[in-house]
Amino acid sequence: MTDTNTNRVLIFDTTMRDGEQSPGASMNLEEKLRLAEVLEEMGVDVIEAGFPIASNGDFEAVNEIAKVVKGSVVCGLARAALKDIDRAAEALKPAERMRIHTFLSTSPLHMKYKLQMEPEAVHDAVVDSVTHARTFTDDVEWSPEDGTRTEHDFLCRCVESAIKAGATTINIPDTVGYAIPEEFGALIRMLFDRVPNIDKARISTHCHNDLGLAVANSLAGVANGARQVECTINGLGERAGNAALEEIVMALRTRNDLMPYGTGIDTENITKASRLVANITGFTVQPNKAIVGANAFAHEAGIHQDGVLKHAGTYEIMTPESVGLNKSNLVMGKHSGRHAFREKLRELGFELGDNALNDAFRRFKDLADKKKDVFDEDIVALVDDELRADDRIKFVSLYVVAGSKGPQTAELELDIDGEVHATKSTGDGPVDATFNAIKELVPHEAKLQLYQVHAVTEGTDAQAEVTVRLEESGKTVNGQGADTDTLVASARAYVNALNKLMVKREKTALEALSA
Q: Which domains does the chain have, with CATH numbers?
């Protein structure tokens, strides 16, 4: 029997599965392994590493994460099809602790138009899928997709049958972000009141943020008996995203007086995880984002500043240090040595090999010569570029002529598969000229969907961090690059996006051959 009467809430992170479904938020294997390491260090209970049947890339990622993660449960998603479940079980085989998460739509709308199945057939498929998953592991989770729009009688019947078939976790998704907190809490309470064997499973929530209520709905679920919350770092996810892990965890910690439930999360790792996900995906965190936004602990109004100086509690309900946000002080300079630089990287959560460390240290020295103050954020942005050692295309140099008297020109050098190529191109402005030069050296049909620039720190000498989104044949990727020169950062970002696009092409070709 699963103990659902404790005040411990499990944190189920689905950044690598549901979060990756955001357009452009694809992660490669190396990036997923880095994220899995941070999530495990943070104390996440369950890491949903991917959807193994979806692609060979997803299978490989789940399989590799299953090999290296020891403390957290590694989970793979599967539809209610035997081949899906078999594929998930195969991917998860190396895991010390594994979970198979299988799901099927149960709402009238989904059953009629998506599944084109009668309720009885759906019910039978629930039983069959959970029963089959239990042949591989004792840890099986079942979800009724579009659960909040499912008829209560049918939902109760399916939940009872799933538990009877061996599901140890029942997850209730608000798939389209339709519910409001009072309604969602009542739904969870209704299941406890009406499902006779509900005490044999842990109840979970999975809320989407279409109405901005994902976190509120999740907490309402917890207040009514749910003891697992499915969430993502930075609230990443398709459409408006998912419930944000950092908001769930800090709400439970800060308002423990009204919600006496704890998690096993080391909250001081939250900022590091947030930055990592933002860097990997290219989805910059909005400044006013709760907990991890740049302004989350900033006070500009005079009356607020006065109050905080007298006592932090006047306007801060939690400390910046509690989420791992240390004040950005000058920590490195042009005279800092390699050893100090390596120690700073470790402090920031990076472990680089010798070659990557040498390249990063060289760029750091160059940055320190250009920039008066070098902050932690500068080093994070710089190092992220050096974690792409396997990229087929590498930025070498850029010379641009710009201004109101055209034409604007760009002279570019790229290392392509180990060989340096150069070209000169013109364009409608320096960014256009730079991107045209890249297209000449790496011909492609991808369309530019997003070009975004923001300063990493304050000051006119701040590094620019550029995000580029490319779309090709329905596939989107985000690329990022950083430099004190915005045009160099732009070129690095575009090249990063192209490298990701090439990986997607190779995976698509491989999957077509193996289909």
A: 10-281 (3.20.20.70), 297-325 (no CATH), 338-386 (no CATH), 393-514 (3.30.160.270)
